[in-house]
Amino acid sequence: LSNGETQGTYVWFDALPNYLTATGFPEDGFEQRWPADLHIIGKDITRFHAVIWPAMLHAAGLPLPRQVWAHGFVQLGGERFSKSAGVKLDLGEAIDRFGADAFRYVLLREVPFDGDGNFSWERFEERYTSDLANAFGNLASRAMAMVERYCDGVVPRAARPDEEAADEADLAAYHAAMHGEHGWLLHDGLTAVYRMTQRANEYTAATAPWTVAKDPARRAELEVILASLIRRIARQTLLLAPFMPTKTAQVWAQLGGPADFEAQRYDALPSLDAGGWTVTKGDPLFPRPA
Asked: How far, in Å, are 38, 104, 117, 143 from residue 120 at the CA level?
């Protein structure tokens, strides 16, 4: 200033407009990206995003973000991350252990999106093994192997068994968790998918298709079982896609699903039919830890 007085700008006042300028503001076309449908922030900075930032936008005559969601913290072994205290996680090591998709799945499954959660290497391996290697991965591998063995790799066209109807409640629970009707509860969405996976594994054990296949007179029964399993796995694959985009694309390809994997939509899941798809069982999707 002319009188020699120096002034500064509050760091948050300087930082917050980046949300807006990233859309191209003030150039034409920024309205296609603004207002944001959802701001996702850490719970310790809610004041800046729920008070200061709206005030700035109001003053500029611009619309406010439609929602602000404050998530909790990830702790390591019960302690908050801290460079000075040596509480840290090597991200590269975490990804290298089972892959980026698996790390993302475990983190979002273990840590509630509306509160603090804990991460540990022991729990990481336990969750990976139980959910991905033993439950979903094993289900997909067994079902595709049986379709290849008993149906020459082509998924039968068959009626849906009554047991499959139990999945409808979890489809609705997943949508509610992911859509934000009661909050953005991603961990609840994954829990709903895991229940579907458990149910499909229980159905496999109860129906014992490997035994049914030994009796030619029970061919129709076998086709109902295998068609149901592949259809369920296809549904679960699509529901898991936001969390594990690379692995689920591989599963979808092995199932023989339509090439436009990214174009599949949630509202089409109730009517999804895998009849006629050609499966190709590949290497294990989630190898068990050595």
From this structure: 30, 14, 10, 32
